[in-house]
Amino acid sequence: DAGVTQSPTHLIKTRGQQVTLRCSPKSGHDTVSWYQQALGQGPQFIFQYYEEEERQRGNFPDRFSGHQFPNYSSELNVNALLLGDSALYLCASSLGQGSNQPQHFGDGTRLSIL
Amino acid sequence: AQTVTQSQPEMSVQEAETVTLSCTYDTSESDYYLFWYKQPPSRQMILVIRQEAYKQQNATENRFSVNFQKAAKSFSLKISDSQLGDAAMYFCAYGGNTPLVFGKGTRLSVIA
To answer: Which of B33, B43, B55 to mutate to test the interface with A (most CBs of A within 10 A)?
Structure first.
């Protein structure tokens, strides 16, 4: 039973560029959430997708956008990258929207901005 | 807005001993869930234990148990018979009608 998979594992970009991160949820899960984890901090919620729509959004600018596909996989896009966007980006999947259900996390994508 | 506070940035414990990690939270909701997640150096967040606020009985999972004090808004994690593999960052998290909110974490070291 495959868990949550994220790609790529590590990415290096320069300021102003755009990036796309990908996530496949755990089998049987229909909801995907994205988090940003800065070094030495806890994860911060970016947004959650359910039934191919963004259902909840955290305090992140519009440069952060996403998408969910019919097979429940998801993408996180970040435009006009800033140095402060350097972080570990975590994807989590769950069954049903909201934050009451246990979320299963992937290994994350480490994004470095030069 | 909900907040989660972990007041212990670092803790250490001798192998086979017991350690308690603290967590407090702030909310106006009456129905919610609390979680402890473990993040080893491999980066993957792993769910350790989950507590439903409407249940008075403290959750337990093998060597892991919680002390949930709803009135005090306190949710501590007790690890018994600590093992070297327990060394990791531990995050307390709140889940309810709002997105999951995490504390800043406690780094646990286990001394052989």
So the answer is: B43
Q: What is the pLDDT of residue A24?
A: 98
**Which whole-number Å values give the CA distances from A1 to A4, A27, A95, B30, B83, in the listed order?**
10, 7, 15, 35, 27
Element (H, E) at B12: strand B10-14
B57 contacts: CB under 8 Å, gap ≥ 6: none
Which B-chain residues 31-90 have CB contacts (< 8 A) with chain A?
Answer: 32-33, 35, 37, 42-47, 50
Say whether A41 and B104 touch across the interface (CB within 8 A).
yes
- Chain B interface includes A103 (CB < 8 A): yes
pLDDT single digits (tens) B39-80: 998 788 999 999 999 988 999 999 999 999 999 999 999 999
Interface mutation vs chain B, best among A46, A56, A100, most B CBs within 10 Å = A100
pLDDT, tens digit, 9 for 90 and up, residues A6-23: 999 999 999 999 999 999
